[in-house]
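As a warm-up, study this chain.
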Amino acid sequence: AYNKAIHASVRGRRLEVALGLFGEVFCRRLEPTLVTYNTTISACEKSGNAELALRLLRELQTRQLKPDIISYNSVASACEKALRPDDAIRLLREARSQGLTPDRITYNAIISACEKAGRVEDALAMFQELRSSALEPDIISYSAAITACEKALWWRSALDILRDMLQSRISLDVACCTSVASACAVGGLWEVAAGLLV
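Now compare it with the structure written out below.
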């Protein structure tokens, strides 16, 4: 019953209620499950509370519960929102060491965390790691990598990623075209920039 109530609170964006219900589980001396923790970590992710999400992940492990990729993805997404790329990258390595296979959500959270924190090289390294895995980048992956290039004014890299995106038959969105155009404009490639915006 508590898992469903916490989940409903998270979906309704009533994050304080979700955290209160999680606390009630302990007050009533009930045994939290992996679902209880994952749902509560999701509440932390929605509010960008990376510190609490990381703490809950550690607590989950001390209770002899084994985190799954959902646990790691939610904490990595919280780290993305809190601009904590080092923690997000560390979580990827930790998930692997636990025998878990990172998915596209894992990579997208880490690429975005690095991009938002201005860590362009790390964002592109994670993007390349995603591309070399069995997974395919999606619009979110491409968008974050292109935005990282735009922020660093790396127009060549932005164009390369855009070309790769087109070859992968992923539909362009306005944000990607605008980011590449912006990077190209700063690089003096006005015709290329104008062509992207047409």
